Amino acid sequence: MTAAAYLQWGVVILMIAIATPLLGRYMAAVYGADGAHAPGDRVFGPPERLMYRLTGVDEKREQRWQSYAFSLLAFSLVSVLFLYLLQRVQHALPFNPTHVPNVPAALSYNTAVSFVTNTNWQNYAPENTVSHFTQMVGLATQNFVSAAVGIAVAIALVRGVTRRRSATIGNFWVDLTRTITRILIPLSIVFALIFVSQGAIQNLHGFTRGTTLEGATQVIAGGPFAGQEAIKELGTNGGGSLNANSAHPFENPNGLTNLLQIFLLLLIPFALTYTFGRFAKNQKQGWAVFAAMFVLWFGSVAIVQGFEVGGNPKLSDAGVTQTVTATQGGGNLEGKEVRFGAAGCGLFAGSTTGTSTGAVNCFHDSMTPGGGAVTLVNMMLGEVSPGGTGSGLYGMLVFVILSVFIAGLMVGRTPEYLGKKIQAPEMKLVVLYLVLVPLVVLAFAGASVLLESAKSSIFNPGPHGLTEVTYAFTSAGNNNGSAFGGLAGNTDWYNTTLGFAMLAGRFLLIVPALAIAGSLARKQTVPASAGTFPTDTPLFSALLTGVVLIVVGLTFFPVVSLGPIVEHLGVR
Fold first, then answer.
1. Which of 78, 134, 497, 509 is the most exposed place for a label (fewest CB within 10 A)?
2. Are 371 and 332 in contact (CB under 8 A)?
3. Cβ count near 198 (within 10 Å)
4. For residue range 163-204, what is the model confidence (pLDDT) as tens digits?
5. CB 330 within 8 Å of CB 311
6. 461 phi, psi to nearest 5 deg
């Protein structure tokens, strides 16, 4: 790799190291970890109280986990219905300069579910399918809201883990509102302005037709790209306003914006670990979770970059030079944006699939088999490295509980976490959380390679085609949203089944997570003893990392071995 690639690595890590405690401490205060007034009450308090009065919310009344879950599910259902309706009537709505027609029913369902679940899977070319009004009022709104829902669940679980003898885990409406007004909107405004200053497009234009130097006609899209770009990365959403996503210069103009986008998609997931430490009144607990997330992220990015910078062995055998020269960036450049190269692709790809973002600055279908395998496995980890906004933390805390249970079995005593005994009710919910998504992913992927109607959508037969199908359902089930390509997804089968996988991967996991929060919140803490396994040490971080890798390996190794591993062995 070049010195510039190593420098980019270092800058990203330095920015995360600085921002994690700063934003994490602020978020802890926003959600009341210290018991004092939340910061910004003078600015944000009046509009928030007005919203509470208009909606009939009692902001001082907390909810049991069942009420919290019901509020979340009801809000999400209304969001899906609204976004579906918006797409179905967009032709009659304003800010539609290109006069795109209404979105078909199956695609409207898939898109509505996709954005409400924070997946942002796109079975369409945005510039030709959705109007500016749908982008701004529908999709961009859900970028804020779906991210806030995930963070709210994470905070509810943190309260459940850290509270004692409590019947409640917070108020969903207050957590949702504060996340949007005090965290997501201010940060999005700042970074949107930075993106605009660097050349990202922000207008309400339609298509502009230009003539190239060769005399051909080129159609250039316009739209409110910069504003959506900021929340797209910050909220780990990933759905772009342009089909090329962050490989397009209108969304990602230069190296600085590329660096900031990587930083943004990692920012909140890592910062939430510090927030957790503040709630636990033991910052080492937060750093232990941070360390496990960081090791998984760092390792995946390093492996992806190694494969992509190393290039394609078949080309080397044919005498093609893939080393860095003055005229080319080196490595596997197929499907790469030349401004970022193979190393920049690896850093972005490892980060975007390690979180639930799904944005891309290169095309994963064109990666080497080994590089593509890592992006697939990243999602199979359950989006915990470091995961999505909120979903990364609550997913990792589920693995923490499993790790504590395993450690308890090893020392022959009832496992404990932060003084709470981990017993049968919690473990049943943990197992439910861990098996649901693999069941959905593998069942639909298996059906898709057997049904003739579904097989007709696969452009590449053999191991690569299996990887493409598995990647699609893994991306949907883990609410990532990135696509491997090579698959015609805009069919009734894939629109319907991928939509179901997104719903299952979001809400069938949120409910058990909230149930765990309610169960733990009711418990009294027990004092630590000589047999208590410490959970704030490097040893526990190593155990946690190992448990994540082993669980995923036992679950998905067969399909990974039949897809990318077989393909990788074929090009050696």
1. 78
2. yes
3. 16
4. 999 999 999 999 999 999 999 999 999 999 999 999 999 999
5. yes
6. -70, 170
Q: Where are the beta strands (DSSP E) in 176-332?
A: 208-211, 217-220
Q: Which residues contact 64 (CB under 8 A, 6 or more apart)?
A: 167, 168, 169, 518
According to DSSP, the β-strands at 416-417 and 420-421 are antiparallel
Strands, E, within 143-186: which ranges?
Answer: none
Burial classification of residue 453, based on how many CB atoms lie within 10 Å of its CB (0-12 exposed, 13-18 middle, 19 or more buried): exposed
pTM (global) more than 0.85: yes
Contacts 24+ apart (CB under 8 A), 542-547: 543/403, 543/406, 543/407, 544/288, 544/289, 544/292, 544/396, 544/399, 544/400, 544/403, 545/292, 545/295, 545/296, 547/399, 547/402, 547/403, 547/406
543-568 pLDDT tens trace: 999 999 999 988 999 999 999 999 88
Let me know: does 104 contact 77? Beta carbons within 8 Å.
no
Q: Would you list the domain boundaries of the chain?
A: 3-281
Question: At which residue do the structure tokens 């960081």 appear?
Answer: 294
β-bridge mates for residue 362, sequence order: 336
Instruction: Tell me: pLDDT of 99 over 80.
Output: yes
